[in-house]
């Protein structure tokens, strides 16, 4: 462990006293990142050279908690500003190579590492910490990305269920496109919540833009209509397509149990208003 302590102190002193040499070597080890270093700083306020020094110091000092926290913050920053994992991996590997380059230089000058055990022990400790940084960085990066995608997906899902108020207590829900087993559940959640929150008493559901609805979805849709009725809201279906009606008839499903069925949306709104 004495060898590691000596190397650690010499390495930190060297980097602190020869910052330009350290930065230059690091940039030559990461050619793709080096040409984008200013853009990354301007785009995300991420100082790659400063952070490289921080990573090396956390690594050689074996500051595990600080290193993990730093990795998580870095992961969020890179994900937030849409910086690629490819660039990050190249940069960290460049930091790793630069670290061992200067360790070799210091050892050559001061003859600190005297046997293989010292070298292999130091290699294991330092490389494990850098790998630990990468693992936590990737986990933080992907977790942030997944959260953002889920938020965007939910936003799109709710936009695909546009409940439009026509007058007090009367709203229209025009459904467009294919309704699959996932989307029908989104429709159920949005409809029941809006009935409760907006005190909707009549909901006109227009199906003229619905391209396709499988039998399991039709069956689920019948249950959604039952839920609407249970909440004291009157459901009116318009724009039923012939192919949808055929499926319902052959399957013995009748929406009329829990909803009125009328012709076009325009005619229905004219009569209501």
Describe the structure.
There is one protein chain. This protein is α/β, with parallel strands linked by helices. The protein has twelve helices and five strands. A five-stranded mixed sheet has the order 1-2-3-4-5, with helices on both faces. Helix 10 (215-230) links the parallel strand 3 (202-209) and strand 4. Helix 5 (48-60) crosses helix 7 (85-110) and helix 9 packs parallel to helix 10. The radius of gyration is 31 Å and the shape is rod-shaped. It starts with a helix and ends with a helix. The mean pLDDT is 90.
Protein traits:
single chain, 273 residues, alpha/beta, 12 helices, rod-shaped
Distance between the termini: 85 Å
The helix-strand sequence is HHHHHHHHEEHEHEHEH
Give the helix tally: 12
Strand count = 5
Proportion in β-strands: 5-15%
Range of helix content: 55-70%
Q: Kindly state the mean pLDDT as a whole number?
A: 90
Globally, the shape reads: rod-shaped
Spatial sequence of strands, sheet with the most strands: 1-2-3-4-5
Structural class: alpha/beta
Low-confidence stretches: none
Give the biggest beta sheet: 5 strands, mixed
């Amino acid at each position: 462990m004495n060898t590691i302590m000596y190397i650690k102190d010499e390495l930190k002193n060297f980097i602190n006293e020869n910052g330009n040499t350290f930065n230059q070597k690091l940039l030559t080890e990461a050619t793709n990142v080096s040409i984008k270093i200013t853009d990354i700083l301007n785009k995300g306020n991420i100082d790659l050279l400063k952070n490289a020094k921080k990573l090396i110091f956390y690594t050689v000092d074996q500051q595990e908690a600080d290193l993990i926290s730093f990795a998580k913050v870095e992961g969020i920053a890179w994900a937030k500003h849409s910086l690629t994992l490819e660039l990050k991996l190249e940069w960290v590997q460049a930091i790793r190579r630069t670290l061992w380059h200067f360790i070799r230089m210091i050892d050559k000058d001061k003859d600190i590492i005297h046997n293989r055990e010292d070298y292999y022990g130091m290699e294991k400790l330092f490389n494990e910490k850098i790998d630990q940084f990468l693992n936590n960085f990737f986990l933080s990066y992907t977790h942030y990305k997944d959260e953002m995608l889920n938020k965007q997906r939910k936003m799109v899902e709710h936009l695909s269920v546009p409940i439009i108020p026509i007058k007090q207590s009367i709203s229209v829900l025009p459904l467009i496109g294919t309704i699959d087993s996932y989307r029908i559940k989104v429709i159920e959640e949005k409809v029941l919540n809006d009935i409760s929150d907006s005190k909707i008493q009549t909901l006109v559901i227009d199906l003229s833009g619905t391209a396709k609805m499988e039998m399991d979805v039709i069956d689920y849709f019948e249950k959604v209509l039952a839920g609407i009725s249970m909440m004291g809201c009157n459901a009116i279906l318009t724009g039923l397509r012939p192919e949808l009606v055929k499926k319902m008839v052959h399957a013995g499903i009748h929406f009329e149990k829990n909803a009125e069925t009328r012709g076009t949306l325009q005619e229905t709104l004219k009569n209501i208003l």
